[in-house]
């Protein structure tokens, strides 16, 4: 029983990390129709921004408020990079899918190279508060606090996103744009501002994933964003393009499947099962768990 509880909660922690990356990715594709392969760069900037702030920013680092300030700095850095990417590189390329893919893939590779050139290719220890390295007893299982922190953060982000999309003006514009972008444009609404806002939200969520992912893994490395981006894309496809709730469901399914299969089977088999789940969903429900069927 203890093992089941531990695997479930650690799997949910991994799912929370995937969701933080996938939520912004899903919104960006749903509204702007952009497959942003540079999304992992925002995660890397958030992780390294938090790591740098913890050691260099006055008042940041350590326990309590200092850790919150370091994370806030990393999230702000990731958000700023996301906005600049949208304004400078993506905005001129809307409706030009091939060019978007080439630019975002190139930016992703360039971003990893820049992080390596600046801080080296080796993983660096992440400055985690002492309480995140401890465990909490839940139903007889000793669960790492880092994973519980991720679960709480992902639940808060999900709630904030749903509230924003439902009860704010720009949230309504984004929801309408995901459903029918041409209609929103015909009503005279400038969707370009919504595009920039969605990139900012996605960048902030990815940067938060980078910061908390450093707490979860204990290290930060230049290629960390790229490896997590692969599973984030799988989560987005399984959940349904443009659906935040679908991404949450898919992240839970992927995280739990990966954790249980890797424990009870051979190492790495869980990743294979995730890809198999993706294939099954694409065959049986191509629009994803919460996606809508496209009508001709």
Automatic annotation (TrEMBL):
One of its GO terms (molecular function) is transmembrane transporter activity. GO terms for biological process: amino acid transport. It comes from the Bacteria. GO terms for cellular component: plasma membrane. Keywords: Amino-acid transport, Cell membrane, Membrane, Transmembrane, Transmembrane helix, Transport. Signal peptide: none annotated. The chain crosses the membrane at residues 6-27, 34-54, 66-89, 101-119, 146-165, 194-217, 229-256, 263-284. It is a multi-pass membrane protein. It is found in: Cell membrane. Belongs to the binding-protein-dependent transport system permease family. LivHM subfamily. This is ABC transporter permease. It comes from Micromonospora haikouensis.
